[in-house]
Amino acid sequence: MRHFTFFYFFITFSIGIVSLGIVYSAYIKTKEKIIRGYLYFYAAFSLSVFSNLLLAYFRVNSGQINIHVFQAVDYVEAFIAKYLLLFTIVVFNHHLFSVPNKKNKNIFFGIIILCEFSIHHYFEYITSSEKIELVGDLIDRSLFFAILIYSLVLGILKYKQIEDDHFKSMAKKMLILLTAMLPGLINDIYLNDLWSFRFFPILYVGCSIIFSFHFVNRFLRYESIPIPEDSFFNKHQISKREKEIIHLILKGYSNQKISKSLFISLNTVKSHVRHIFEKFHVKSRFELMALFKNAAKPPH
Fold it and tell me: What is the rounded distance in angstroms from the CA atom of residue 228 to the CA atom of residue 280?
């Protein structure tokens, strides 16, 4: 069973790392905030899976591993990875579903998670009462479950309000996966002492497949968007320099690459991009790409 567990975590982590690299490439190309938020979340998830992979390896080779190394990795898994994952789940969901006052809500959840992080340390390393440790463990598990349910309910209530069809499809698939995995995740949270099999790596792989497919399909397919006629630019009072920058944005150039291509400073590029967004009433590069793609479609 120990060998199976190690192989199980190894396969799922390998798939996740490939996915992480693909999504990171999409972020380098587009600099979209939603991809960055996902990368934070998935990096924390990857740290959790990787620490479990190391622990599974240590158990297979128990006689050859230094106890201090084992304890260090166990601490990373039980504290660092878990609480980072809790926080990044909340932040990413708030961003994905465009939750109002998300900054204040992120701070609120961050304070709760930080408090539980401190309390968990107290129950684990300071108190000597077994009953208090059991209470602390129950609180810790319940917080994880509460954030899981919060994310699921938030998604169910908000995903239909997502205006972008691509994001709506991605969110819907993620909600279906999370709902299907809920019994297994409850097992991982509350019954992991009774059954050694873990279900969360399946969710980890599912996330990698869904988000990688949608991010790559969404952001990397716009490399050859037709350029509208000059009248379209004149309508929005676009200058010659701004038009040049738009051309490069539609090719997937980053601000830094635009700066080098046009021999202007990075701050100048950022200023032009900001003005372009304002003139077209968009908030991101993808929205700008989508606007130009729709503008290039022939009228029905």
Answer: 14
